[in-house]
Amino acid sequence: MIEQQKQKPEIPYLTRIQILGAMGATAIILLIVAKLSLYLGHFSLFSWDLNQRELLFGVGLGLSITALSGVVYRVWSAYRKSADYYLEVILKPLALPDLIWLGLLPGLSEELLFRGVMLPALGLDHLAVIVSSLCFGILHFSGSQQWPYVIWATFVGMIFAYSALLTGNLLVPIVAHIITNWISSYFWKMSQLRQLKNKF
Question: For residues 70-90, b (16+ Cβ closer than 10 Å) or e, as one string?
Fold first, then answer.
């Protein structure tokens, strides 16, 4: 039986230090863009308030998105291939404790820019949701064959955006984003470790 060849990455595999450095640099760049946009624009940052009810709502939303991702992963083979490719490039070099940063850095910086700044800048309406979500999806583009992952990220971006609009609280998508990243990356990492053990 001939084993199917894995898709070769269009971007080179990075080391653990390079991935962590890239995550940190990306977070800083997104925060700078958000700050500059607030400084130069005539709008305010989307409000956020730390309260237990919406914190729990964010956790529940994150768990729901993770469960939905699992279903999509099983039924849509193009997305499964795209997600495995993306996650292998990002997660393979990382150690388990690094996943904390994988949740926190993108969860905070991306939500601040795409929901905290872009939504009010574009008018807090359906068009603002669509445009900010498309930009969020494109941020996750890592190669010409990665369109299913971009579509999924755009869809999740819309969920995050509507959760902010419906609750009036940026805390909800921030928490949901962090939870989604933590759980999905943890389960992917565990499945890879199990496959490695089964080979020996």
Answer: eebbeeeeebebbbbbbbbbb
pLDDT in tens, 158-175: 999 999 999 999 999 999
Question: Does residue 41 carry a pLDDT above 90?
Answer: no
Q: Using only C-alpha atoms, what is the Rg of the chain?
A: 17
Tokens of 39: 């400084």
Three-class secondary structure of residue 155 per DSSP: helix
Residues 61 and 195: their CA atoms lie apart, in Å, by 29
78 pLDDT higher than 70: yes
CA angle, residues 162, 179, 84, in degrees to nearest 5: 95
Token pair of 24 as six digits: 């940190």
The pLDDT-based confidence of 1 (bands split at 50, 70, 90) is very low
User: DSSP label at 115?
Assistant: I
Alpha carbon of 60 to those of 117, 134, 180: distances in Å?
A: 24, 24, 10
Cα separation, 12 vs 152, in Å, equals 23
What's this model's pTM, rounded to 2 decimal places?
0.88
Single-letter amino acid, residue 16: R
Element (H, E) at 72: helix 52-75
